[in-house]
Amino acid sequence: MINVWIVEDESSQAEIIKEYLDKYAAANNVTFSVTVFSDGLDVVERYDGTPDIVFLDIQMKHMDGMTAAKRIRSVDGDVVIIFITSTVQYAVQGYTVDALGYVLKPVPYTAFSQLLTKAVSRIDNKRKKNYIKITVKDMQLKLDCDKILYVESMRNNVVVHTSEKDYVTVGPLKRFEELLGAHGFSKCHNAYIVNLSHVQAVQKEEVVMTNGVRLPISRMRRKEFMAELTEGIL
């Protein structure tokens, strides 16, 4: 099942996209679950990381598609974004939000199906990855586990350190231990869970991460941590 969100203020255009999805599904043995929104503001307020593909009209009344795309991309780096537009002038800006492409109105099925094929291929590759969802400032973020370097307990919060930026969310750390334990992570200290694939070295009582950060290893955790690290390397 591929989840598709259509954000289009013209109901007739939204219906065309739905018809095209049905046609493509029948011809390519895939299944789509489709949700339609009439404005960019609606989709931003309800975004929860579930869509695989978002078709975005660029020109809308309350929030235009480009602004909505930037907001979506700030919390989801992997969702496929495809713009629907009346002019190429606006579509060129799509590169700033890593859009897969755009289709011009009136939407031709051939161009639509070609882009959709690329989107489906990208989704198939994405589903081979592992993700977790966290809440940051009342927004749901979807994080690729491979990009998480380590997770740190800080008072009542948890800081998720990734290769791109850090995210502060509500704890406890134990929840992340349960979420990440099956994806190559290990607890080296009561305050830290590390991604074993991002461990560069272990020196005395410290773990050296690939970004140069040094984290402590507690005496109680050292033996189990080293065993898990060795198992991961082998």
SSE inventory with pairings:
Layout: E1 2-7, H1 11-28, E2 32-37, H2 40-46, E3 53-57, H3 65-75, E4 80-85, H4 88-91, E5 101-104, H5 109-126, E6 131-136, E7 139-144, E8 148-154, E9 157-162, E10 166-170, H6 173-180, E11 185-189, E12 192-195, E13 199-203, E14 206-209, E15 214-216, H7 219-233
Parallel strand pairs: 1-2, 1-3, 3-4, 4-5
Antiparallel strand pairs: 6-7, 8-9, 8-12, 9-10, 11-12, 13-14, 14-15
Helix pairs in contact: 2-3
Write up this protein:
The radius of gyration is 21 Å and the shape is elongated. α2 packs parallel to α3 (65-75). The protein is built from seven helices and 15 strands. The strands form four sheets. The chain has a five-stranded parallel β-sheet, sandwiched between helices. A five-stranded antiparallel β-sheet has the order 10-9-8-12-11. α3 links the parallel β3 (53-57) and β4. It is of the alpha/beta class and 234 residues long. Helix content is 35%, strand content 33%. It folds into two domains: 2-126, Response regulator (Rossmann fold, 3-Layer(aba) Sandwich), CATH 3.40.50; 137-233, Beta Barrel (OB fold (Dihydrolipoamide Acetyltransferase, E2P)).
- Provide the CATH topology of the largest domain: Rossmann fold
User: How many DSSP helices?
Assistant: 7
In whole angstroms, the N-to-C terminal distance is 35 Å
Largest sheet strand order:
2-1-3-4-5
CATH C-level category of the largest domain? Alpha Beta
Strand content: 25-35%
Mean pLDDT: 89
Order of helices and strands: EHEHEHEHEHEEEEEHEEEEEH
Poorly predicted ranges: none
Task: Write down the overall geometry.
Answer: elongated
Number of beta-strand segments: 15
Main sheet attributes: strand count, strand direction, barrel closure: 5 strands, parallel
The helix/strand class is alpha/beta
CATH-level-4 superfamily name of the largest domain: Response regulator
CATH architecture annotation of the largest domain: 3-Layer(aba) Sandwich
Rounded Rg? 21 Å
The level of helicity is 25-40%
Number of domains as seen in the coordinates: 2
